[in-house]
Amino acid sequence: MSFILDPRRRHQPFLLLQSSTAQSGIGILRQVIGNTKGHALLFCLLHPSLLSLKAPNVETYDLLGNVPGYNSNYVDPRHRIRAAIENASSGPLDFILDSVDVLLSDIGSVAETYKFLLELMNLIRARPSASRLVIHAVSPSPLLPLLSQPAFSPSLTHVISHPSSLLVHLSTEYLTLPPPLSTEAKFWGIFLPISERGEETERLIFGTDGEGTGDNDELVIEVILRGDGEGLRRRGVDRTLQGWSITRGLRPLSDLNTLRSLWSRTVVEPTVADPTQNVPFNLNLTASQQNSRAQVPLPYVHEGKPATSVSAAIFYDPDSADDLDDEDPDEDLDI
C-alpha cells in the first residue's frame, strides 16, 4: 500500500485526499509531499504549515493572502496554476493543490471550478512523463462527488481520513468490528452509511461526551482504488481500511494503539431461540418414526398415472340443493 505516497508505482495519475472536520488528513499530505520523487508544484491555499516543508524538488506557491475582495493585488489563481503547469519541465511532475475548497471559494462557481480541474487533469495526462494530480479536499464539499466520478478520471486513488474512535463506536453501539473480525458485507453495510453522513462522527468527536478533535498521530484511512491507470478501467472498485500513524506510517489496524482493545474483544452474535425447547411434549421424531412417515402413501386421486397424461380438470359433485337448471335466467334481456 506504499503507492499512496507515490501513486505512479501503480500508474495512478490522480490522488484525492479527503479530510473532514472530525479528522484531518494533512499529515498524509505532508508525507506525500515529502516523498515526491520528481519535480513538484505545491499550491498552498489553506494550510500555512505546508510552507515550512523544505525540499529542493518542491516549488511552493503561497496563495494564502490572495483573497478576492481583501487583497488589492488579487490575481485569479487559475492563471498562475495553468501557467505553472504549462511552463514546467518535461520530466515527471507532481501537481499538489491544498485545498480545492478554497479554490472553489475564490472562483465562486462549482461548474467553473470543476471545468478548471478537468483542464488540469487533461494537462497532467498529456505530459510525456508519468505525472500525477494530488488534490486535498475537506468534506462536506460539493466537488467531492464530481471528482470521484470516472468522468473526471477513470483511474483513482481516493484516501479518506476517519478518526479511530469511529471504529470503537461501531464496535460498542453496533457490535461490529472491522474485518477480519467481522464479515466484509456486515461491516461495510454499517460503516459506509455512518461515515458518509458525517453528523454522527462529528457528534462523536465534538459532542458533550466526545473525545475532542481527531488524533493527530493515529487515524484510520479508507482507501478506494479504481482503474489500473493509463486510461484503462477495471471492472470493480477495491475498498480497504488501513491504519495510519504520522510517526510510523501505514500500519495494520491492529497496530494502532487506539484500536488494540478491539482485537481482544469477542462479540457474541445473537442466537435464535429453539421453539422446541421447554415444551411439555416431544416435537422431534426418532429415526424409526421418520422412516414410517416416509412410507405412508399420499392420497393422490390420479396416483399411478404419468404426469404428462394428466390434463387439468375440475371434478365437481353436485349437491342435492344445487339448482342445475340449464335455462338461461337472463334470456329475456335484450343485450
Automatic annotation (TrEMBL):
GO terms for cellular component: cytosol; elongator holoenzyme complex; nucleus. Keywords: Cytoplasm, Nucleus, tRNA processing. GO terms for molecular function: tRNA binding. GO terms for biological process: tRNA wobble uridine modification. Its main location: cytoplasm. Pathway: tRNA modification; 5-methoxycarbonylmethyl-2-thiouridine-tRNA biosynthesis. InterPro entries: Elp5. It is found in: Cytoplasm; Nucleus. Belongs to the ELP5 family. This is Elongator complex protein 5.
